[in-house]
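TA notes, week 10

Several of you asked for a full example with nothing omitted. So below is the full record: structure tokens for the whole chain, then the designed sequence directly under it. When grading your own attempts, check the secondary structure regions first.
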């Protein structure tokens, strides 16, 4: 009974499609990281985390969180 339900629901197709989607996104990110220039990655690594900047650098109308 359960096998008939899963066979008719198309769950297998969705499982395979989601696995292929995950693989495609993973390959895209991996290729993008390996093709990135080291200078670009260094610049991204040096970006301040939220709340690490000076309060003077915050946009107008905002205040730092405690």
């Amino acid at each position: 009974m359960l096998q008939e339900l899963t066979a008719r629901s198309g769950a297998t197709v969705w499982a395979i499609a989601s696995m292929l989607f995950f693989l495609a996104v993973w390959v895209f990110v991996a290729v993008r990281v390996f093709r990135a220039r080291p200078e670009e990655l260094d610049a991204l690594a040096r970006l301040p985390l939220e709340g690490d900047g000076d309060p003077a650098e915050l946009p107008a109308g905002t205040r730092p969180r405690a």
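The chain has a mean pLDDT of 82. Use that as a sanity check on your answer.
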